[in-house]
Amino acid sequence: MLKTGVSPNEVTVVAIISACGHIGALESGRWVHSYIQNNGIETNAHVGTALVDMYSKCGSLKDARLVFERIRNKDVVVWNSMIVGYATHGFSKDAMHLFNEMCRIGYRPTDITFIGILSACGHAGLVSEGWQFFHLMKDEYGIEPKIEHYGCMVNLFGRAGHLKEAYELVKNMEINPDPVLWGTLLGACRLHGNLALGEEIAEFLINQNLANSGTYILLSNIYAAGGNWEGVARMRTLLKDSGIEKEPGCSSIEVSNKVHEFFAGDLRHPKTKEIYMMLEEMEGWLKAHGYTPQTEIVLHDLSDVEKEQSLKVHSEKLAIAFGLISTKQGATIKIVKNLRVCADCHAVTKLISKITGRKILMRDRNRFHHFMNGLCSCGDYW
């Protein structure tokens, strides 16, 4: 477009900025932002919202906040974007402070505002505050809860271990819960080791033809945690017989203004040899630190050795290996994953952050994970 002499307008730059945010291309997004500033395109509320959203999705809340502060005529959408950005990263106090400031000035919250603030409460484990906001949304602002609001509440209850309350909320919803909502509840059952409730939910989903691949995997994980290997085998068989295809995991990482994409077992990258050599080196580090592969999460009918090999080449591990060989020592590694990061990759990424002294920032389907010194900002609940 630029080569042909056609100048982009507001609609063009918003579309490009949004695309950069979707794939986590921070440096490309910064280039577009610089182009906007140098070519007289106004950073109005529309463009500003796109920039705030892009920087948040690319892991740079500092840049997102700078853009937010410089937007002169903010509307509620701008405020929402910043609140949701803080919430997605787990910066709950900042999200709640911004919500209070927004209301104080006189902006009226929308359904998106409450998705952000309820999510923030969930990350911080603020159960009573979350309930207050949920009722405030309905009673004071007349906003009927959507599936996303219920999802935030189930996540909030689940994180706090209030599984009975979460289950009752789902059963009494005025709208039909979707597989993502059920998956959130199953994930909470896995975390807290509630096999009975996990079985009840999973069996209901399977019998109602509402199960997806994640349903079988989560219940298998619950069985494995309780040492019920017959249950694990049954889930493997049911998943195979169901014919459900698992969405392939894909992880991307931006290096030198170029986005590199990996699938599990990928051999397409020009630096495949170096990447797999780094994987071998990583495996040595991990074993030296007591790591044991979580083979129970692999539902394919494979031997234990084959399961370990399958885990070893997950897309996020390939992206991390590429990041380690392609960035300067000490640089933050930023990864975008299209699905929820699995338990094994989560454990590995924590250890790699400790061993290498690197910060690893990973955006998965649910949230941002800030890995530092062997810990994750999600508190191992995601």
From TrEMBL:
<dbReference type="InterPro" id="IPR011990">
    <property type="entry name" value="TPR-like_helical_dom_sf"/>
</dbReference>
<comment type="similarity">
    <text>Belongs to the PPR family. PCMP-H subfamily.</text>
</comment>
<dbReference type="GO" id="GO:0008270">
    <property type="term" value="F:zinc ion binding"/>
</dbReference>
<dbReference type="InterPro" id="IPR032867">
    <property type="entry name" value="DYW_dom"/>
</dbReference>
<dbReference type="Pfam" id="PF14432">
    <property type="entry name" value="DYW_deaminase"/>
</dbReference>
<dbReference type="InterPro" id="IPR046848">
    <property type="entry name" value="E_motif"/>
</dbReference>
<protein>
    <recommendedName>
        <fullName>DYW domain-containing protein</fullName>
    </recommendedName>
</protein>
<dbReference type="GO" id="GO:0003723">
    <property type="term" value="F:RNA binding"/>
</dbReference>
<feature type="domain" description="DYW">
    <location>
        <begin position="290"/>
        <end position="382"/>
    </location>
</feature>
<dbReference type="InterPro" id="IPR046960">
    <property type="entry name" value="PPR_At4g14850-like_plant"/>
</dbReference>
<keyword id="KW-0677">Repeat</keyword>
<dbReference type="InterPro" id="IPR046849">
    <property type="entry name" value="E2_motif"/>
</dbReference>
<feature type="repeat" description="PPR">
    <location>
        <begin position="75"/>
        <end position="109"/>
    </location>
</feature>
<dbReference type="Pfam" id="PF20431">
    <property type="entry name" value="E_motif"/>
</dbReference>
<dbReference type="Pfam" id="PF13041">
    <property type="entry name" value="PPR_2"/>
</dbReference>
<dbReference type="GO" id="GO:0009451">
    <property type="term" value="P:RNA modification"/>
</dbReference>
<dbReference type="Pfam" id="PF01535">
    <property type="entry name" value="PPR"/>
</dbReference>
<dbReference type="Pfam" id="PF20430">
    <property type="entry name" value="Eplus_motif"/>
</dbReference>
<dbReference type="InterPro" id="IPR002885">
    <property type="entry name" value="PPR_rpt"/>
</dbReference>
